[in-house]
């Protein structure tokens, strides 16, 4: 028995929660076929043509017999969907009567979010460029001050920025050409609004386009941004970008290319869409004739969208998808957060017990699955994701990243309290991903609310991730309770720096316990482009416990060839157990050869009850638990060169002020009580903190000038808190010589 298992309470669980038992009665079956008809009854001999017809039949059948499981079986063929298929709570199954949508056994069922280019191609005067008229794209317009929004289908005329020629991604007309030895431009100087090039480099034609972008890796070099070209100044040699995705300085050395420019259509394999006249151009390779080639461009942003309502508290439940091949969904511009790009071929929003299994996602613009808001017990297992613009799976709450509280994707009181968890993500293969958005990963688990930091997380096991722009697995603010085991992750960090094969950044020392066990991680590159054209390898790790990630066990991992460290932990992590890992600069063999990746079966998920920390984080905005007296004003702190903005309250010394946090516990015991705040020279060095606990009252002198510079937990003391008695922490400014601060208080139960 491996040592890692000894201390774990091991409970074998079923790999996928989609393996439901079908009830005694056989499931009711409906069929969809490319030669079906929606006027048919949906039987095998009289199949439907559309998903919508099958969806209506399922709803009707549920009214007749709620207890019968239903299968919708899709026959072989390529389905070019006219709009996103939405599943609402009324499309749900139940535990005993689930709804399964699946490809027929041994039949290839392609669900495309794209459209075939079907017109007649003709040769242009140059003899190399072909064109075809696409009237549905004529007159496309976009307001570059607003994020690009798709409804169930594009709003207005059609536009696309990807073209798949014989299922290979063709090159949107760009400069410099992709086959150049040094295929980038480099900023000489710039800020968040413009980028400056050397004299003579900027061409007037770049500014005359309706839909040109630069794809730039700015300051910090850990993400890219797609910026609309708003205008160019040939004399000043500047490109001014649109107001969106201005996430970082486009400072000296930032590298980029420009695309979507007709004058740069000059290399075989490049294409250009002119939406002013509705015409697509393609420069053929020698011997190619586009009339004899498959040409498909994305049309839909999402193919399936499972849509519960977070404010009403409704969910889509017990719906599963099996055996489909998803293709050609698009990506969108104007993302509100650099780390999080919200494009998914399939989106689950407020879903429970839903699953995707044995599906393939290929040539898609964003992630395969985007899981959003109050979603638990969902699974993504035995899938393959190839050539995606994003990564494999994205999990998000209402606020993206939380680095800046203004980045709210889904506003609302209920939305603000939830995020996906208890997701099973196992036995997947994710390869060659992050083509459009570099801040991606096999699995990207974004922020959750502080109040959820101590809850269990997700299980990520037996995956094989290869050739990714960035991390293999990433978890962000307030994430914890994640088990990452038996994964094989390699050739990651291909186009960015400062990440890892497994990168945790909890920004919270109260995060629920994480376990990183038995993984095989190698060839973490780290990539920074230098102006003379040579890439530099730097800042890529095997396992990276970033931003004070705490309560984490790292055991029995085999790691070699990192661009920085095999295991790196920074910013004052608490309670790490790093043991029995094998680390090397050169190749070493894995420990569990037969168990790694999708072919393995050992699944030692820890008892979910052990994936919690007990205690609570209370923020200064929590009206139910925090009371203020005196004059408190809202203020904010920008930290880490603008990487985050924190909002909190403070009170000046002139007038008496105090604030009292209730410290309710579900379980009596000794708790470590902590303060969260940013130290500041204007703060008091002699504030008083009064802790009323089960065994009395203690007063602590507190120096708010000092503390954790990132605003993470600082210990006030350990106190016995009784679940039946009121405990409080009060911050006062009696005789104080500066501001007192109310940001957050946390308490965590000690063993
Ligand atoms: Ca070109």
Mean pLDDT: 94
Report helical residue fraction: under 10%
Structural class by secondary-structure content: mainly beta
User: Which small molecules are bound?
Assistant: calcium ion
For the sheet with most strands, the description reads: 12 strands, parallel
Oligomeric form of this entry?
single chain
How many runs of DSSP E, i.e. beta strands?
A: 66
CA gyration radius, whole angstroms: 27 Å
End-to-end span in angstroms? 26 Å
Tally of helical runs = 2
- Described by the principal axes of the CA atoms, the overall outline is globular
What order do the strands of the largest sheet run in, or round the barrel if closed?
A: 1-2-5-26-30-33-36-39-42-45-50-53
Q: Per DSSP, what share of the residues sits in E-state strands of 2 or more residues?
A: 35-45%
Q: Which blocks of ≥5 consecutive residues have pLDDT under 50?
A: 1-23
